[in-house]
Request: fold
Amino acid sequence: MDKEIIAQLKKIVGSDYVMDKLEDRICYSFDATFKDSCPDVVVKPGNLEEIIKVMQLANRHGISVTPRGAATGNSGGAVPLRGGISLGLTRLNKIIKIDIENKLAIVEPGVITDDFSNAVNSTGVLFYPPDPASSKISTIGGNVAECAGGPRGIKYGVTRDYVLGLEVVLPDGKVVEIGNQVDGDMSGPDWTMLFVGSEGTLGIVTKIFLKLAEKPEAKQTLLAVFSSLDDAATAVTTVIKSGTIPTTLEIMDNLTIRAVDDYLKAGLPVEAEAILLIEVDGSKVEVEKQSGQVIKVCGQCGAADIQIAVTSEDIDRLWKARRAISPACGQINPTKFAEDATVPRSKVPDMIRKAKEIANKYHIKMLLFGHAGDGNLHPTILTNKHDHEEMRRVELAVEDLFKVALELGGTLSGEHGIGYMKAPFLKWELGEAGFAAGQKVKAAFDPRNIVNSGKMFAA
Amino acid sequence: MDKHIEQWQQQLVKCIRCGTCRSVCPVFQITDNENTTARGKVKLIEAVADGKLELTREMQKRLEKCLLCKACAVGCPSGVKTDELFMSARRALAENNGISFIKKIAYTGLTYRVLFNLALRMGAAFQFLVLRDAPDKKGKLARIPLPAAGLNNRRLLPALAKKPLASLIPRVSKPANPRARVAFFPGCMMNYVYTAAGKAVVDILLANNVEVVIPDNLYCCGIMVAASGDYGTAQYLAACNVRALSAEPYDAIITGCASCGSTLKHEYGLIIEDPSVRQNWEKISGKIFDFTQYLTSTGYSKDFAEIRARVTYHDPCHLVRGMNVSKEPRTILKSIPGLELAEMKDADKCCGCGGTFSLAYYDISRSINEDKIDNVEKTGAEVLLTGCSGCSMHLSDGLSRRGSKVTVMHTAEFIACAYAAKKREGP
Reply:
């Protein structure tokens, strides 16, 4: 990159926050996916004014800008595919306001999700529902960009459902405020919805207005053990049909159960074909009614055993198994493809069957676990990136998974986003006309194609 | 070099770049820079293995900006042995670029035991030239700032002891009918600086009817040297220590310093290459214990005086993650009547010292320590106990800078006091 540009960037944000040595660029070349691409320079602005000036400079010279939070994404959103500037936003890390009366919060994009959740929890009356698995590390800005979900999504929705408004620096450096703090509505179309999940391809989010939820009075956690995967899948759809919407409805298949048990030695039912982890919340009366309903339905669907966690230790024990899946996978195979192709709830049994067929067809190790209640099964393929022959089979299997999900009326991504990973398949879901419309939206906001180019609507 | 790369690959392939290390790394939490996270450094090492990066000095700087506190290794969901990987990379970088001149001279000094002993004894006599007493007499402050040696003139350093431990206590301390015979490895800090803590370990063992030998010809354990990548010197020191500790049969080898203990017991497995030295080390490594571990596993006397005090305990990295020792000191402390052990938040988080890290990056080191000390003060404890000399030094410095009333003591000193007080009281 031109030395003159680097000098100007240093003038804008201060030389401590501009890094162009190869050793530093390498550290900013990746996220949780497996492709790397070095930025030419890492820039870490400290406030709105600096971001405006950086964008003006970049736009004038046509320099690529890739916004970056904690780079924990699973679709490649923070990888600077076209070099240019990696724009680190973690210095904007203030929780500006938590307003208990109006149940809303104003935060900067670099706030860590858990730090925010804990701050909201400490009010005693409110909570922030989105709970992506990476919440200890991820930033709220990244969650908004990718529209992150989490186990609580089935009842409480995903990040999109909590964004009231945004302050955004557009690629040319102009600032817009979309949505509002009152009800999120805006005169005209819902622009906020357009920006949530846009993966930094339309502009740089610099401030976020979030809606908060009331803390439920009580909750209960249950574990249902099934000797048939089909029965477990049927239970998922039947529970929801019965009128009970659990807070979480997570499934683990046999391979996952065994992997976790090998890792934790937690005494899980390793003979079971599937287990469901179900949590219900609400008032004490509601919780009792709902858990009764869940037990009844699981029993009717052929559950071999149902455990009810009463004490917080019991609840922790059940959740520990769910949280241990990722590390347990790491112990088996080094490379992990965590997919999030998602289908309508009613199609969960079909999706499970098809996924198993694909795993058999390509002789690959595929674990099924995840937010079954959302239709998001996280088919996770364990492989080794150095085994090129197997990697080829994995790629084919992933393509088949996408096809099957779409055939069942689902989507490529339940919560991880498109990024560079799924960009080649986006047309399958949107069709030629939808894809072209998306490209026009992108061009309207970013005519010089500088923000996070190469992602999503990149042909 | 190819040998290094082959070794690295086994760890590199496991990193899924999930970023969990961002949530546990004390240095990252201060710097907010990906070049200090484990996954960032793993990526640099991978770039070297892939031929995309040379072993540059810039890379060396980034690898050195690490406390080696093992928090990333323990917290890694994929089980990447980052601690071993970073030590090995530091070695390759040192082989390629060398280490700083001052470090080289200091480390060469460590291999000449007699000279080292003499230098530190002379140092005790002449330290007044560069160091002055702190106003509260708890340690020494630099008279003039010596940035090259990491001596900020507001930094509190412990005074060198007037006489080393080895000349304060006999080579063999034997109770009337010993139940066991152990070797005690005091290490440099207990031998030359914190001699009272060293003596306390011996007193505790004697109070438990254990015969204690301080073997001849012990050297520095070598962790500082190995951490800088100077494996040649580290291997020499390791060979000397293994020889000294194998010269006679002992029931156990006892350490009182977290870093020495984890180095002798675990890091030597990575450092020693000579097959015969390795064979001898394998014979003794299973017998190496922190003194608290030895006491709780073989049983200990509960003849403690009542001590009405509120204390808190800081887990040194090299004890909790290095030797898997965290329950043991707490168990013993809880058996002292009247004593209240108030746990601090994040007791097992690094204090920020990291050996030579605190010399090179004192500001970061200080910031990490400030959080730790906030947590200490919130417990309302009068005494802060810990089992590592490096931690003691850094925590004392932090407490002194803010004029705190909390006193730092080695766990051994406190336990020895409880035994001694009971003895004075009589049965």
